């Protein structure tokens, strides 16, 4: 008599959701700022200063409020997510230059100023959809690529004047405003790894600086609802 033997194939599953939806927030920010100044003397020997400041930013916040499983296999599960988003685009550009030149009379020196400033603000809110792909190796990818349409306006101010040159009109000021419509907020895509101790929580943060000078920061914190 010998003890009976039994054999079986076992499959190890790292993650298997038991919740019915997801809720939480994803925040995205992309920003760049350049501040440049150049000074010297021109071919006539007069001093000059060229000053430029440029700022760009794009932000988006998604409030996730629901989700449904679309596909569930041994390798992965895919969720269709829903929520509401707010997107804001902003730009500011400043050129503030001056140069010395001849005045109205011989041997007099006058200074010419030129200042150009523009600011653009646009935003939008609305419902959004996304997806969440969770692999059984414990990694996941979260995507909200379609963002609300943004609308706003661009305002521009231009000034030109002289110092110590009364023989010419010493100031000119113009202001324009143009509507900004169309376009959408930035898409969001992040990847991470599940915490085995908290399988119903997706959270993380990353920040990087792109080769073109933009700094991108994304934070997310989602929880599964049961």
Report on the architecture of this protein.
- The protein is mainly beta and 226 residues long.
- The chain has one domain.
- The chain has no helices and ten strands.
- The protein has strands spanning 21-41, 47-72, 76-102, 109-135, 139-144, 151-163, 171-180, 188-193, 201-209, 215-225.
- Strands 1, 2, 3, 4, 5, 6, 7, 8, 9 and 10 form a ten-stranded antiparallel sheet that branches.
- The radius of gyration is 29 Å and the shape is elongated.
- The two termini are 51 Å apart.
- The model is unreliable at 10-14 (pLDDT under 50).
Sum this structure up briefly:
The protein is mainly beta and 226 residues long. The chain has strands at residues 21-41, 47-72, 76-102, 109-135, 139-144, 151-163, 171-180, 188-193, 201-209, 215-225.
Descriptive terms for the model:
226 residues; mainly beta; ten-stranded antiparallel sheet; elongated
- The number of distinct helices, counting runs of at least 4 residues, comes to 0
Q: Give the termini separation.
A: 51 Å
Helix content: under 10%
- N-to-C SSE string, H for helix and E for strand: EEEEEEEEEE
Q: Tell me the β content.
A: over 45%
The overall average pLDDT, rounded, is: 90
Shape: elongated
Alpha-beta classification: mainly beta
Radius of gyration: 29 Å
Oligomer: single chain
Total count of strands = 10
> What is the number of domains?
1
Largest sheet: 10 strands, antiparallel
Q: Uncertain regions: pLDDT < 50 for 5+ in a row?
A: 10-14
């Amino acid at each position: 008599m010998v003890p009976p033997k039994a054999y079986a194939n076992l499959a190890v599953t790292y993650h298997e959701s038991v919740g019915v939806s997801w809720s939480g927030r994803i925040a995205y920010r992309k920003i760049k700022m350049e501040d440049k100044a150049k000074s010297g003397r021109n071919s006539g020997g007069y001093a000059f200063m060229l000053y430029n400041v440029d700022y760009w930013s794009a932000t988006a916040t998604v409030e996730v409020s629901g989700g449904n499983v679309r596909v569930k296999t041994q390798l992965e599960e895919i969720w269709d997510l829903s929520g509401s988003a707010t997107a804001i685009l902003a730009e500011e550009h400043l050129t503030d230059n001056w140069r010395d030149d001849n005045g109205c009379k011989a041997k007099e020196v006058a200074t010419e100023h030129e200042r150009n400033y523009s600011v653009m603000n646009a935003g939008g809110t609305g419902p959004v959809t996304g997806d969440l792909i969770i692999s059984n190796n414990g990694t996941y990818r979260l995507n909200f690529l379609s963002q609300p349409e943004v609308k706003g306006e661009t305002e521009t101010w231009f000034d030109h004047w002289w110092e110590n040159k009364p023989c010419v009109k010493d100031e000119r000021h113009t202001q324009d405003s143009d509507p900004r419509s169309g376009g959408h907020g930035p898409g969001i895509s992040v990847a991470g790894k599940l915490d085995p101790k908290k399988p119903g929580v997706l959270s993380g943060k990353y920040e990087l600086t792109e080769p073109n000078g933009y700094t991108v920061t994304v934070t997310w914190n989602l929880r599964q609802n049961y």
